[in-house]
Amino acid sequence: xxxxxxxxxxxxxxxxxxxxxxxxxxxxxxxxxxxxxxxxxxxxxxxxxxxxxxxxxxxxxxxxxxxxxxxxxxxxxxxxxxxxxxxxxxxxxxxxxxxxxxxxxxxxxxxxxxxxxxxxxxxxxxxxxxxxxxxxxxxxxxxxxxxxxxxxxxxxxxxxxxxxxxxxxxxxxxxxxxxxxxxxxxxxxxxxxxxxxxxxxxxxxxxxxxxxxxxxxxxxxxxxxxxxxxxxxxxxxxxxxxxxxxxxxxxxxxxxxxxxxxxxxxxxxxxxxxxxxxxxxxxxxxxxxxxxxxxxxxxxxxxxxxxxxxxxxxxxxxxxxxxxxxxxxxxxxxxxxxxxxxxxxxxxxxxxxxxxxxxxxxxxxxxxxxxxxxxxxxxxxxxxxxxxxxxxxxxxxxxxxxxxxxxxxxxxxxxxxxxxxxxxxxxxxxxxxxxxxxxxxxxxxxxxxxxxxxxxxxxxxxxxxxxxxxxxxxxxxxxxxxxxxxxxxxxxxxxxxxxxxxxxxxxxxxxxxxxxxxxxxxxxx
Length: 525
Hints:
Number of strands: 21
Radius of gyration: 27 Å
Largest sheet: 5 strands, parallel
């Protein structure tokens, strides 16, 4: 069979994105706060330190790059604090605006995305990745937030040790910026004797979700779990820092990453759908092994004695008796009729679901081998935006192998309903822990609630309304998860209001206008 498959995905959205150009003349410019008479109230901003993970580091558009760091919400916040007694705010700037990271010259993290008006898709920035983990730029820095840091990593010894890069026990961004190989992130925070801190307690959940909800859940308990990490970090800060703000953690499943690609984005004509169905329903031995659906249905055949080639086709052998009550097929694992229906692959003309691997399906061993754990997506599944670039790709130059159509997309590209339930249940428990652990006199900032507000109603500020729409909503960047520069400005302004409410400062009067911050960066900046 030669599959004639034409893949046209997301044409309406991508056409609309052709107008998505940078909306400021110089998107790399640092926006200074408007002059105002700053008042710190009862707070002391003289030594402000940010501790956190990706979204506090300036990570956006799938990478960490200089312009993103300049527009990180801690840097925006520090700008307002600078006129209210705040001191210099330093950051571990990377080497370029291409983004990415190398270790001993080998790329380990890719370049940032920009929107290409030629392909109508996000693509990697041009230019060489020049940020090298072993090009040590020792800190400590005011912004001690680094990409992909979990809560326990903030107190983990060796997390900045170059020798840990090969074993995965070190973080390349922290390796580059650590004051010494033996320093912990929390050590490099406390050695600065901060007078004020902000804490985003880790990337635990977004890392789990962005990898499609691996079988292992986020580790909450145990010596190296998130609970131990959060309690150790907050305990160390509370004992050494007079004041600060701690945030809750957003739900990754509500972001544009998992709410842009529909569950049924595969367009097929009748002929191609029929061709695919023929493969999955094959009963002709001359065309190869029996089709997936055929084997799946055999799990439900009553009183089957085996598979015989009767009349040249794969069919059940005749029953030896006239039993009217179905019995399980003794040659196969028994699964419910409901699971058989869910796993049966059927294509039709029009928009079709994505063929995926689902680790939660029942393992079935048959005389013909293990049955793949595959099924079609349904309306309760969420497809990662990253999958959109791969859907419909022909593999190995074989037109019969089409990713997401005849070859299943990996579990790392999908959040199933079960995985979403697990994520949200664990996240709720983690945010309850964070909320109950805020030291007396400190502020809790509901970052999770802000994301929810952006997603459900949109947020209007400074004459701009920000929504969760991919690329066009203004809040989420081109990776669909991390905020844009304008999204960071929104977070900073909301955090200023929270600080003012607790300490009587007037940071909200600093004149930060979210319209001064871009929603995207062009190639070649």
